[in-house]
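Aim 2, interim progress: modelling of the BV8-bound target.
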Amino acid sequence: MEFREDLIDLLRVAGSVVVVTGSGVSAESGVPTFRGEDGLWRRYRAEDLATPQAFSSDPALVWEWYDWRRGIVAKAKPNPAHEVIADMERYYPDFLLVTQNVDGLHRKAGNERMVEIHGNIWRVRCVAELDERFLYDNPLEVIPPKCECGSLLRPAVVWFGESLPFEGLTTASEGIQNCEVFLTVGTSGVVYPVASFPMLAKSSGASVVDINKDATPITSIADHTLMGKAGEILPELWRAIKG
Ligand code: BV8
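Predicted structure of the complex, ligand included:
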C-alpha cells in the first residue's frame, strides 16, 4: 500500500493528534455497523429504537435489541485498527481518542486518553435515581432489568434526541480546536454533533485525515482520504510512519 510522502511526514512528526472513530472501526471485529448493508437493526431502524420514546413505549423491545447487541460485542475482540489507535496514544505526546462506539473495544485494546461520547453498552442507569453502574450479565436474566429500587434500568448510552455528556463534549471540542492532526476512522459522518467535528478541526487549522470504506460528507473536507478497510489500512500506514 502506497502513501503520500506528505501524509507520512505529517503523521510522523505531529505533536497533537485527535482520533474520532465510528462503527466502521469495529466492523472487522464482527460488530455490525449502523447504516451498512448488514444493518445493525434486524427488523427496525436504529433511529427508531435508540430513542427515549422507544424506551418509554416498549422498554422490553429496546432491551431485547441491546441484549442482542451485547451478545455480539461480548464475543468481539479488538482488531488491528484498534491496536494501531492504542499504539498512537503511546506514540504521540498529546493524544485524544473520541469514539462514537459503545462497544468498549478501544479500551480493551489499551486506549485510556479517550471519550466514549455516546456512552458504553455495558453501563446502565436507573431511570429514577440516575446513578450509573456496569451490568455485564449476558444474556440478561430479566428483560427489562430493574434497579434494586424497583425502577427500570436503561442502557447508559446517548439516544437520538438526547444531549451528549457535557464533560465529554468539552474535552472533545478543546482537543479538536488545539490539535495538529484530526483523524477520522470508520464513521459515516452523519450523526450530530460529532458530524460537525471534522469542520471544527479544519477551521481550527488542523490537517484532516479520513480512513473509511466509502465516501462520506467528510471526504469533501479531508486533506487526505484513505479509502478502504481500517483494519488493513491503519497497520500499513503505521508501519510506514514508524519505519
Ligand atoms: C443531539 C448510541 C442535541 C446508541 C448513537 C437533522 C440535522 C442535524 C441533526 C439532527 C437532525 N435531526 C436530528 C438531529 C440530531 C441527531 C442526528 O444527528 N440525527 C442524524 C441521524 C441526522 N443527533 C442527536 O440526536 C444527538 N443528540 O443532537 O443532542 C439535541 C437534543 C435534543 C433534541 C435535538 C438535539 C445524539 C446522537 C447520538 C445517537 N446515538 N449511538 C447506540 O449505539 O445504541 S448514534 C450511532 O450512530 C452510533 O453511536 C454510531 O457510532 C453513530 C454514528 O454512526 P457511525 O458510527 O458513523 O456508523 P455508520 O454505520 O453510520 O457508518 C459506518 C461507516 O464505516 C460507514 O461510512 C462505512 O462505510 C464505514 N465502514 C464500514 N466498515 C468499515 C468502514 N470503514 C473502514 N473500515 C471498515 N472495515
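The first helix runs from residue 5 to 13. The chain has nine helices and nine strands.
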